[in-house]
């Protein structure tokens, strides 16, 4: 059998059981695409094999297939993504009415507070940014639409986790590794649960340098047409410009007004979920 076993991870790690419908080669192909990053946009075959856990032979087949399909380019034995990979996410984004409705309010909020604003949704253990406005670079890592960050360490995540039923919140806490990002990151699941429940009671979250040193952020949940939380709006600011107390005093009333107006639009448009609006 040609190539039997070549696609298996080299480290022999056991994978979670999959249904008989699962197409492992598709998962492997996506893992090759996800191996690239802004920090390392060009990778060698050995780099890809190491990052995906594939053998060099298997990684080569996937890379050359992606080259033929136009998603990857190769030059002097170094591979890089081509713009065509944007097609993989464009269909979802083009259906997403939520960012379209949110952008005017994010823009106005950004102008009023002179800081970066954004919208995110919860996806598994992470928040995913679906809209972002602001010229100032708040985080050293640089966040764009589509960026993912751990929910536990972000104000976006704190309000979105607060919207989960208790059993789902407990499952999240039990199944998520809480990695320390800064000296202030909450990594004790008991303490994190208390903070999330406090956020649920208060209706907003303010995190001071838990994700990155020098970044303070404020977030509020956004409810769709049924009243269920479907996203969150956030202001991210340099801690040197805004103490937590000042950000709460100045930005919270502006954010509250913006979210209320956005929720009115979502009700009128019938948007019930981030990706499948009923229009």
From TrEMBL:
Q: Where is the IclR-ED domain?
A: 84-268
One GO molecular function term? DNA-binding transcription factor activity
Report the function annotation for this chain. May be an activator protein for the gylABX operon.
What is any Pfam family matched here? Answer: HTH_IclR
Q: Which PANTHER family match?
A: HELIX-TURN-HELIX TRANSCRIPTIONAL REGULATOR, ICLR FAMILY (PTHR30136), TRANSCRIPTIONAL REGULATOR (PTHR30136:SF34)
The cross-references to SUPFAM superfamilies, in alphabetical order and at most eight, read:
GAF domain-like, Winged helix' DNA-binding domain
Instruction: Please list the coiled coil stretches.
Output: none
Q: Does the keyword Transcription apply?
A: yes
Please, one GO biological process term?
A: 3,4-dihydroxybenzoate metabolic process
List the protein's name.
Glycerol operon regulatory protein
Q: Which UniProt keywords apply?
A: DNA-binding, Glycerol metabolism, Transcription, Transcription regulation
Q: Which InterPro entries match?
A: GAF-like_dom_sf (IPR029016), HTH_MetabolicPath_Reg (IPR050707), PcaR_PcaU (IPR012794), Tscrpt_reg_IclR_C (IPR014757), Tscrpt_reg_IclR_N (IPR005471), WH-like_DNA-bd_sf (IPR036388), WH_DNA-bd_sf (IPR036390)
Q: Which positions fall inside the HTH iclR-type domain? A: 23-83
* Residues making up the signal peptide according to the UniProt record: none
